[in-house]
Amino acid sequence: MEISLDWVLGLALVAGISPIFLALLPFSCLNSFHHFLLEFVMRGKIMQPSPSSPTHKFTVPQRFFLHFYLLAVVWTTFLLIITCHYAHNLALSTADLISHKVWLSVFMLLLMEAQVLRRLYETVYVFNYSPSARMHVVVYLGGFFFYTAAPLSLCHLYFFEALRAAGNRGTEMNISKNEEASPVDIYWWYYIEPIVKLGWFQLAGAAIFSWGWVHQRRCHVILGSLRKHRKQMDDYVIPYGDWFEMVSSPHYFAEMIIYLGLLVASGGTDFTIWLLNLFVLRRKGGTCVSSRTIRVQEEPFCHFSIR
Predict the structure, then answer these.
(1) Whole-structure pTM value
(2) CA 164 remoteness from chain centre
């Protein structure tokens, strides 16, 4: 029986969302579950277990963010290549409607590629993680899950077909490698034309995505500048500038906007991408509320917070 990838992704995202929603229910009997869940989502300055603490045994350095951003870049690039190849094959056929939908997946993967490449760059060159900053291993593994599921959600309807087409292409190249090589004709217009024929939803989604992308970049630069000196590594420094003047955790807020842009670009007809946005909303929103605790203690007259 062929695996229904949309069901697998949907169930996986629901499984990730459900515990967070359960912890938010206003029942006193769930308070212990809420605190239990909070132990897993805390990281960085809101998680400072001592080396002798039992919790410390299940944590990893926060600089390990690099690992799942490397995965994100490799995986998204792979999906982009095989989906683009599949879309190109369809563009040469008469399957116009299907071809348009596959090119839409290519467009969303291009946006996702821009996001994960920037996050990888920032992890290496912008952020100076404190040696004491740690995250729970559940958060670490959750990063691998998210950056596997998120790019796949953008092309899941055609993943197996694209993978099969790429495999067939590889077989053809292997068979013909001993034959006389012939010039390869690349019809660039087949790659460019679908992009210049984007609809209003795609243009609006790209604009929303770019808005969040630019502001997240600015906010990350501000956060990175707070840790330029080693003596500041373990001190909490209040960030100012850009959206920090309006929102307590603007980098999380910007990420919600980024994925909202992907949802709008998709046309809003793919339920899996709705679940992806809900996952981002609850994951980032929950972390934002936790991190706001420190800023309220340091700055009582704190600005509007994402809740």
Answers:
(1) 0.82
(2) 26
